[in-house]
UniProtKB/TrEMBL annotation:
The gene is Clcn4. This is Chloride channel protein. InterPro entries: CBS_dom, CBS_dom_sf, Cl-channel_core, Cl_channel-4, ClC. Keywords: Antiport, ATP-binding, CBS domain, Chloride, Endosome, Ion transport, Membrane, Nucleotide-binding, Repeat, Transmembrane, Transmembrane helix, Transport. It is a multi-pass membrane protein. Residues 600-664, 697-755 form the CBS domain. It comes from Leiothrix lutea.
Amino acid sequence: MVNAGDMNGSGNLMDFLDEPFPDVGTYEDFHTIDWLREKSRDTDRHRKITSKSKESIWEFIKSLLDAWSGWVVMLLIGLLAGTLAGVIDLAVDWMTDLKEGVCLSAFWYSHEQCCWTSNETTFDDRDKCPQWQKWSELLVSQSEGASAYILNYFLYIMWALCFAFLAVSLVRVFAPYACGSGIPEIKTILSGFIIRGYLGKWTLLIKTVTLVLVVSSGLSLGKEGPLVHVACCCGNFFSSLFSKYSKNEGKRREVLSAAAAAGVSVAFGAPIGGVLFSLEEVSYYFPLKTLWRSFFAALVAAFTLRSINPFGNSRLVLFYVEYHTPWYMAELFPFILLGVFGGLWGTLFIRCNIAWCRRRKTTRLGKYPVLEVIVITAITAIIAYPNPYTRRSTSELISELFNDCGALESSQLCDYINDPNMTRPVDDIPDRPAGPGVYSAMWQLALALVFKIVITIFTFGMKIPSGLFIPSMAVGAMAGRMVGIGVEQLAYHHHDWIIFRNWCRPGADCVTPGLYAMVGAAACLGGVTRMTVSLVVIMFELTGGLEYIVPLMAAAVTSKWVADAFGKEGIYEAHIHLNGYPFLDVKDEFTHRTLATDVMRPRRGEAPLSVLTQDSMTVEDVETLIKETDYNGFPVVVSKDSERLIGFAQRRELILAIKNARQRQDGVVSNSIVYFTEDPPELPPNSPHPLKLQRILNLSPFTVTDHTPMETVVDIFRKLGLRQCLVTRSGRLLGIITKKDVLRHMAQMANQDPESIMFN
């Protein structure tokens, strides 16, 4: 036997793992983090800092810096997210107008900025000024006529194709993860999944640049969803500068939750809505501390954006409106109808878009992403240019649809027949009969609505940054404005009907079509994303329409009910399932009466479970087991005969520990005994040094009995964020259930393909 003196002499060598070594605690790509372990590590770190802070002034100052580091990270995220959003807004404004013309006095001015500085602009032709010239005026000195129209049409298409081609090329070459909305992946990352590079510096840079290009190209997509991805990239970058967050994946996800709130804050100018969006829609783990920090990050981001003032109206948003008429109870019926339309549109969009994306994944179409983007851009530009409501940017379209018709409005939508004897104040114009401009606008809006519905299905999901918020709102706003004008004309011509008699007298300003557009936009966005509380708050922050919360709530709830009747999944959950990400949705209910023994592995007929023993395996045995299997970890038992459970060892940490031991500890060879106990085993004389790996052993792995209902197991996986759970009976190990097993079982119970869960 090895005598006590020898053992004591080599104690320092054997216990070298009592000091942490590089990369322990990190995870491999496309793997799930262990939330309980990350929480435990952070508690240990905090306890250590607290005890050290009493030793000296310097340690006390370090503990204060550690406590404040979270707030510093939030401040930096808010500043960078707000700045990037402001730059994106200004660049999009300029490049969108560049498709139609250029400012001669300063080419970097957009159309609106160019004419602001002009002294020769008249009120009737406020959009025309000598400094701004269309391409036909600049190239052939003609502003009217067929040749000028064709030249402008051709250059509009060429600019759109140029922007789209540049965007898809940059994404394909430099940052493939910069495509899409980003919200499905961020939801998955926040649930504990690792996708390395998805929130990297290259992704941040390329997504910011290409977002400007694709929105300027006129494609039916928005920048709001991708801005959440951009903000999370900022959060990931700043959290990597502080060891508190860079070395703990659980803490990093708290920062990313707050960054998502900052992203929505600058996307819509809605800081409170951003916090609620992060809480309701994207976050998996959202403690109270994260709520406060999200609020602070959203506040700083909104303040930074307001300081840049990209819209030139001293407001955070483009869609700010002021309505002068209250809404009436009788109007709840058309509002609810808009909610029904929103729910139906949401269902139609999700089903068609997922079918198209699945076709893209499974056919040759997916091999030509550049060609697909070019074709969709060409079709969009060719069809969009002749219609003034699809030619302009979608944000400007929504802004016009939300607007109330005042005396100074020059839009076609406000071409009503005025009473020459009217002597009312400017802001209290009564309902009037529609003029030819309104009827013409209705036809154009109807065509634009059909076009937007169809083209958005094919645009969302291409290999370019693409948001869905603005196109969904545009569909709802167009439908809502048309319904609003219809109700307004009905009330004007039939004010003696019983439904109008009590609240709509002749000569009164009864119906506000812009309000219907706002409600329709909320309904369609709710139908697609299934948001409710955060949606209503975002909408009233977006428009300033605080007194219209009840119509917005009615439409949002109705659209969710109608859409849920056809399927519980929103667009982001549908894309998560399409991509096979291991995401356990809290909203999904599991009601089947199966037990842990039905799901655990190994099943009957399969090879026995791969395990480690506490003190009877050599380094070579452990390395062979690691090479022959691809499991993420191994249960540790007393012996293969008794199978009494001791703990659980992670695969990655075993590999690193053995590698480090061979480099740093003399005497560790292939036939060295590996032991996971406090005291070394009794060994024959002249045996090689044993290797102690107790430090990497999790002595309290989560266990359930074989008769635990799967409903409880699913709940445990959701609420504790487990990677795996061991199944025992009377302390004896029977099997293991991983997150992937749970997802497969849930898919099987829902009559879906269990192999669609692609990742570990």
